[in-house]
Amino acid sequence: MARKVITYTATDGRDSGKVFQITEMPSSKAEKWAIRALMALGRGGIELPEDPAGLGWHALASIGFTAMVSGSYFGEIEPLLDEMMECVKIIPSPSNPDVVRNLVEDDTEEITTRFKLRKDVFNLHADFLRAVAPLISESGAAA
């Protein structure tokens, strides 16, 4: 079975109308990403609830932000953020959706576009939370 692929069309500001393609990470990379993210949360002193998968994007983003300001350092978080954006490509001409290329710096001009892209990347991979939630609550591995 192929990896999941979705598209996101920006609707705001200077990025309005731009179309992005988001592709799921290979399972081995997603697993390592999830473990590193959970470890960063734990080092930040964040206790995860019993069912992190049921929290939704907003709550999980809030937990991640809290971790960044309360103990995790940006050097630990930055590679995770960069890896999220590796899942994103741009469709430079929406009328020709078969042409897809890697992002360059000027492809996103609005910070909100980047946050929305990260949200979609996260949601595309959210199944990992359902898989690891029982392990976290049983062993306290993220604490």
According to DSSP, the number of beta strands is 4
pLDDT averaged residue by residue: 80
Q: Strand portion, in percent?
A: 5-15%
Helical fraction: 40-55%
Widest sheet: strand ordering: 1-2-3-4
Question: Rounded to an integer, what's the Rg over CA atoms?
Answer: 16 Å
* Biggest pleated sheet: 4 strands, antiparallel
What are the secondary-structure elements, in order, as H or E? EEHHHEEHH
Query: Are there runs of 5+ residues with pLDDT below 50, and where?
Result: 139-143
- Overall form: globular
Secondary-structure class: alpha+beta
Question: What is the number of helices?
Answer: 5
Distance between the termini: 34 Å
Number of domains: 1
Briefly say what this structure is:
This protein is an alpha+beta fold and 143 residues long. It is built from five helices and four strands, in the order E-E-H-H-H-E-E-H-H.
Protein model, in words:
This protein is α+β, with helices and mostly antiparallel strands. The protein has one domain (5-139). Helices cover 49% and strands 11% of the residues. It has 5 helices and 4 strands. It has helices spanning 27-43, 57-70, 74-85, 111-124, 127-139; strands at residues 5-9, 19-23, 88-91, 101-102. Strands 1-2-3-4 form a 4-stranded antiparallel β-sheet, covered by helices on one side. α1 (27-43) crosses α2 (57-70) and α1 (27-43) runs antiparallel to α3. It is globular.
